[in-house]
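Anyone have tokens for DUF485 domain-containing protein? Sequence:
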Amino acid sequence: MQNSAEFAQLRTKFRKFVFPLTALFLAWYFLYVLLSVFARDFMGTRVVGNVTWGLVLGLLQFVSTFVITMVYARWADRVFDPEAEALARRMGEHR
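Reply: yep, here.
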């Protein structure tokens, strides 16, 4: 199965979805880290009461993780998993 064209196509589809999403998240994460190191005044600026930009952006890290997880799960349910199951069935028939 691993050497089949269908599997290669499915793997490519997976990578085209997952790699850009991972790169986007890592860029966002490293931006937060870099801001924490090099823009301390900005990160320490209070937005409301004792809430700073650093805290807001840090909490948004968690939010973005959940959003990415939901986006991936929805994509996998609608696009990837049905194709992977169909491929597995076809390959099982060719045993």
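Residues 43 and 54 are 4 Å apart (CA to CA).
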